[in-house]
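Deliverable D4.2, example record:
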Amino acid sequence: MNHQRRNTLKAGGGLGVLGLLAAAGIIKPEMVNAAWNQTAFEAKNMDVAFTALGAEKPAESADVVITAPDIAENGAVVTVGVVSNLPKTEQIVIMIEKNPNMVAATFTLPEGTVADVQTRMKMCQTSEVYAMVKADGKFYVAKKEVTVTRGGCSG
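Output generated by the structure prediction step:
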């Protein structure tokens, strides 16, 4: 029995149904796209970014831990991790102060999820990396300077 053919037919049928629902207007594109905070992602200073994310003045917290290299030899790929030891962590936002777009990543965490995220990002130059955490409706922040020897942003 050819399982690959069977799986292809199943997937094609599912896509066909999805296409019909979209054509009929039952499913709209915004229903499948994640919410995007355009103001936060286009912010050019930290205060604007914090405000757009709903955090006027987040409190510094030792319970928010950033793991990133002290020196990044190649700014095109910098591994950054954030762990929140705060109970009821709802969201983690990673921001890079001197990048063209400060908000680099946002993570929304369902209740009961371990608040530990890792990602790779580009850094244009030596900068403070901020981790903002929303936990139990309040905002907390931590920061760490990462020295970049070769920038990863073109232009």
